[in-house]
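Posting this for the archive.
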Amino acid sequence: MRSLLLLLYFLRFSSSIEFKIFDDLLEVRSQTGFFFPLCSKSFHQKYGEQACASISNTFSSYSEIPLQQYTYSIGCTSSICFTFLSAFCKTGIKVFCSSSLCAPGTLQVGNKCLSISTVPVQGYSEAKDYCSPYSLISSLKPSEIESIRETILPSFTDTRSFLTSGLRQGSTWKWGNGDTVEQEISGTGRCLAFQSGVLVAFDCDTEAYVFCESGRECVGRNTEYSGTSNRTSDGQGCLMWNDPAVLFQRDLDFEIWNHNFCRFIEQDGRKSPTPVCYSKPHQLSECNIPNCPESLNDAIVLETGDSCPIGSFSCDNGSKCISEKFQCDYEVDCNDGSDEQNCEDYLQNYELIGAYRLADSIIEVWTFIPHVQGCARKCRESLLMCEAFSYEPKTQTCLLTDTSQTYSSLARKITSLYYRRRFSSKDVTFEVEEDTVMYATKNSKKGQVCNENFSREKLSSICKILGFG
């Protein structure tokens, strides 16, 4: 009963108090609708977790900082929480969110969280035990192999072999998650290893290092969580699932784990709405885990006779449903590659200016964009009149801007690419004369707008430029 009251309290609080982070400062919405810094005396870790979760990040740490402005505090009664002005509180909270959705000590590669063994293990069976309670890396996409080759391998002075979950089944190679290995594999071993930047057949009893995969610190679209968070929403530590005191008290029938991480559980045939853990031997409490960004959600595997939900794309071979946002993102998600067939060349409307990164006038930030074509697509589809963008392949970060001025808002960066529209609406002025004839002017040259390839979409854009809705 008490855990239910805690849950109701948290839900009531979440719906009535809104946080945001501005220049790393934690702000709270006042009753007037404006945001002000939160007084440090009112801070609780769950406020930082809620603010970081709102931007699909994870809470890392915080510090108190002096302020030269008013702050707001939070007060709660038995039924509601509210904000009020704190005229004498001049210290706020600086919140540090982690953009990585992987636990400390692990590396984010694509949509996976990896850890690497520091010592070699003797064969496949020992490798599985080494990774427990996690697993050997479930699969490797070409883009993930490239990322490991560029970011992880250079840190080793010797040539190492890393065991994966891949196994030879007859003449076919299968990953631990059931997917077929798409690359050609050379060698005679039955295990699959990563060696010198490529996948090779490997003797399952030979000594090797290990790639372990742990869960991401976010909840996937299929309401799954296998990360390492072990604190409840109100900051209490989680007990081990197999703690004798927990086993003695509990009357629910679900899996017993040898860890204290938050997990979804089944109660009366229904999955819990959020990950939970035991904060006391007799008390289950919810954990505040953010949802994964859309680009990190896994594809839905179809059962026979199933159809894809609205907003999803069905692979041609009927094996998976993927989000429509993954279609034509220039990274293969379907085993048959059908999600990347007949895709538009979004870059044809942009010209590469050079190795620069946007440092000012940024209107949108997109992360986990696997290819520059995806960044060009975001720019074209932006509702904020995107004129140019910079893209960093290694961090998969896309920055959009609404200015076509070349150098005033740029910083030179060798790992970033800056593109600008070949035909910018800001280089052209439009006007309507004689009530019906539209003219365009560029470089002091004026002419009528031709109706060839003209569309309602283009007309709508021009109306916005002229100041109409």
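Helices lie at 2-16, 45-54, 123-131, 142-151, 244-249, 372-381, 456-465. The first strand starts at residue 19 and ends at 22.
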